[in-house]
């Protein structure tokens, strides 16, 4: 009995939308590089970092890997182009490498979002403030922070994932009637029997997402306090608030996209794994659960990706960029003269 992965429109739609948005992402990179004023020279590189990280993550997930989970079991298979590429070069650890690439790209994208908010907070601080850092120092600190978190993730991943041959044998022993699931060499087992190392790995992933959210919320709160603490003009304060608000709009989309599948599918899956291991006579119900959850996940993913990752971020990103340029070209102080007020408009360049 072979594996038939349905629905087919899920794969077609994911590939189509990814191919459609790749040139849009490239256009966004070109806009950041060439369609700007000199005041945005410093901000450009940080926006470019975020844009490239986001584009890379989209490509890895939707074209390169395109993972499909055989729920309610913690196993799956990549259906993207990376599998063919690794096969062509004779690399045997293709699925594991793809998993690591996806996790690393998500971590780096989250770090680029945190860097944008951190630099926005730094732009509000006056030059004499003790917490004011140079752009280079800020980038180095965030990069070091990212390296530590990514290292922890990779170490916990290698500790949690079992030897694939042993996992296949365990799965075949527990579920002899489902051996057709493990015929494909690219089927990957995260675990067969849940142990402490798997809980640690899952915790590290949730910890990274939660830590990123807490960091962004803290930076927004500190930025808001700083805007009302320092002697800024009303126009400068309004521009800073608008920039922070637009960044919030942009990050709300990937947050919803990352957390949605986690709570809709993965969280219930965690509670069903022990039951499927201890009750082999429930395999018919397991297959029904697999089909139901898969259909829910596919429908949710297609609608979510179409509406969020591909439509809203680009519209908001270009709107933010246009607003930033128009604001810089029409800055007016309280007295009505076109000039820099209190030396804080110069900070808006980052």
UniProtKB/TrEMBL annotation:
The chain crosses the membrane at residues 12-35, 47-70, 100-121, 133-157, 187-220, 247-271, 297-319. The keyword Protein transport does not apply. It comes from the Eukaryota. Keywords: Membrane, Transmembrane, Transmembrane helix. This is G protein-coupled receptor. It comes from Caenorhabditis remanei (Caenorhabditis vulgaris). The keyword Transmembrane helix applies.
């Amino acid at each position: 009995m072979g594996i038939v992965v349905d629905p087919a429109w899920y794969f077609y739609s994911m590939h189509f939308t990814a191919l459609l948005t790749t040139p849009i992402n490239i256009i966004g990179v070109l806009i950041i590089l060439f369609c700007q004023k000199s005041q945005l020279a410093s901000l450009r590189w940080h926006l470019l970092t975020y844009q490239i990280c986001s584009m890379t993550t989209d490509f890895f997930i939707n074209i390169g890997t395109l993972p499909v989970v055989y729920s309610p079991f913690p196993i799956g298979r990549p259906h993207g182009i990376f599998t063919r590429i690794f096969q062509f070069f004779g690399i045997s650890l293709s699925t594991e490498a793809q998993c690591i690439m996806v996790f690393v790209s998500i971590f780096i994208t989250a770090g680029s979002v945190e860097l944008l908010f951190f630099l926005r907070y730094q732009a509000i601080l006056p030059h004499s403030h003790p917490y004011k850092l140079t752009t280079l120092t800020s980038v180095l600190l965030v990069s070091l922070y990212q390296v530590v978190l990514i290292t922890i993730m990779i170490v916990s991943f290698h500790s949690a994932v079992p030897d694939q041959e042993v996992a296949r044998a365990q799965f075949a022993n527990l579920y002899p009637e489902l051996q057709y699931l493990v015929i494909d060499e690219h089927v990957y087992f995260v675990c067969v029997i849940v142990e402490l190392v798997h809980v640690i790995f899952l915790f590290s992933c949730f910890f990274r997402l939660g830590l990123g959210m807490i960091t962004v919320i803290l930076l927004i709160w500190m930025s808001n306090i700083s805007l009302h603490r320092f002697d800024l003009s009303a126009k400068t304060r309004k521009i800073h608030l608008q920039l922070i608000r637009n960044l919030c709009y942009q990050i709300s989309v990937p947050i919803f996209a990352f957390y949605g599948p986690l709570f809709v599918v993965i969280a219930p899956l965690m509670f069903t794994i022990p039951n499927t291991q201890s009750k082999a006579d429930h395999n018919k119900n397991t297959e029904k659960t697999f089909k139901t959850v898969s259909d829910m996940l596919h429908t949710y993913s297609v609608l979510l990706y179409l509406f969020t990752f591909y439509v809203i971020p680009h519209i908001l990103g270009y709107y933010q960029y246009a607003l930033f340029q128009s604001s810089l070209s029409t800055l007016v102080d309280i007295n009505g003269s076109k000039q820099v007020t209190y030396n804080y408009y110069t900070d808006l360049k980052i």
